[in-house]
Amino acid sequence: MKWDGAPLQINLKNEQQRLVRMPDNTMFRVPVELKGKLLVDSAAGVLYIQSNETLKNVPVEAKLATTGEIIKFTVNSSPTAKGTDDEIRVVMPWENDNASKVAMQSSMPVGVLPDEQTSNAAFSDSGAAAAVVPNEAVSPNELIRYAAMRNFMPSRLWKNNSQIQQLPALKLNLDQLFYGRSTNVFYSRIESAYKAGDINLYVITLRNRMPFPVDVRFDDIAIDFSYASVPEPYYALGAKSSQNNFSYLYLITKHDIKTLIKNVDPSVG
Fold this sequence. Notes:
This protein has a five-stranded antiparallel β-sheet, covered by helices on one side. Mean pLDDT is 76; it is low at 96-135. The two termini are 42 Å apart. By secondary structure, it is mainly β. Helices cover 12% and strands 36% of the residues. A hairpin with a 2-residue loop joins strand 13 (186-196) and strand 14. It has helices spanning 95-105, 140-152, 257-264; strands spanning 8-13, 18-21, 26-29, 38-43, 46-51, 55-64, 70-78, 88-89, 121-123, 130-134, 159-161, 165-167, 186-196, 199-208, 214-215, 227-229, 236-237, 246-253.
């Protein structure tokens, strides 16, 4: 459902919970007279709505935590309502355009897998770890690919590059790495870090906290970054208890990540 200012229609079947995915963490306002009749819980940008009795054209409001914007809904519920099994996703008018911009300008291609060749480097296959003789400055794509090799391939197949320096591992609180709809959705930890010229790459593991699948949303990253990539096909993380609730986020920044995190979370030491 695309929010255009007009109230959005939500149809419910009595006693059946329905999920409404919002573009941000949300505070939901339910009229006092509906207390005990219309139940709403909110977590990580998802509303869980259930009506315990028949309702007709009931106005309710949701307030987005980041912007304070109010989205109006009209709720109807009946014992025989049809088509109420599907989840609802609410999309803001700017959301698709912004996501497209992020995908094109702020993320590298997802197919950054280790079997791809590096276009501007000459490889030597001698030795356990082959040497790379770079022809020019390391690009963000090459830096991500270099780190991906170390995540997905045995060490005997790694390629070395004298222009890439591995940085000491950082133990840093990343609770504020994401905001908006992705607030508190992931357990995040820096696994490794690299530097090439004036760019830094942080390899961050993400684990889903939620009991339902979630996507990695680059536009919910709270700190200033230059490029982001998630290995294909791991944009969607499975539910908390599933085996595929894990992914890597390759994040390239111009500044040290500790400084960037402190900008959004001053409590970080």
